[in-house]
Amino acid sequence: MSGNYLLMKIALFISKLITFYSFLIWIRILLSWVNPYNRPGSLTYYFGLIVDPFLNLFRSRHFRVGMLDLSPIFAIAVLSLLQSIANIFASYGFITLGLILALALQTIWGYGLSFFFMFAIISLIFRTFTSFTGSMGVMYQIGSVTAPLANKVKSVFFKNRLVHDSTINLITLIITLLLYVGSKYLFSYLIILSQRIPF
């Protein structure tokens, strides 16, 4: 058995181990919604013992949106990147810096920026709709998450001018959509360029 073959088998084992651990993290997240109290002896407690030390590495106030904690998404993104690297090595017996860079860019886009853009776009749709209709229900609360974006657009484009909220929200939504499309194409181009790095 050659040394490279053994390393490929180890990489495959690591990949499967990461898949299993990621699955445990998802269960932990679901359990925290059903049973948020981490009492000793509960199922949530035991899953917490296994995955919380890793999740705690990513916990930060920067990853919170209101009551929503996004840090598990970043933790799973790191595991996904490591799993992809292990899978490529397990399949081909080598990996290049270019492939690692391409995988990192895919992970940043897939788990970070695209998620942020989708969340912002959906919230802005709710915010724009409520600003036109004047309703103050659940849609208004969801849309209020994007208030900092709308305020930034107002300060940049409409400084010292009186403009209706619905106009600002609509312009913010359009700008966010354009940034999403532009970022998607930019990341696709960077990923293709990274894959061409020969080392």
Describe the SSE topology:
Elements: H1 3-34, H2 43-55, E1 64-65, E2 68-69, H3 71-92, H4 97-133, H5 138-143, H6 147-157, H7 165-195
Antiparallel strand pairs: 1-2
Helix pairs in contact: 1-2, 1-3, 3-4, 4-7, 6-7
Overall pLDDT score = 85
Helix content: over 70%
Assess the beta-strand content as a share of residues: under 5%
Shape: flat
Contiguous helical run count: 7
Alpha-beta content class: mainly alpha
Low-confidence stretches: none
Provide a short characterization of the protein structure.
This protein has 199 residues and is mainly α.
Describe the model.
- The protein is mainly alpha-helical.
- It has helices spanning 3-34, 43-55, 71-92, 97-133, 138-143, 147-157, 165-195; strands at residues 64-65, 68-69.
- It has a two-stranded antiparallel sheet.
- A hairpin with a 2-residue loop joins β1 (64-65) and β2.
- The longest helix has 37 residues, at 97-133.
- It is flat, with a radius of gyration of 22 Å.
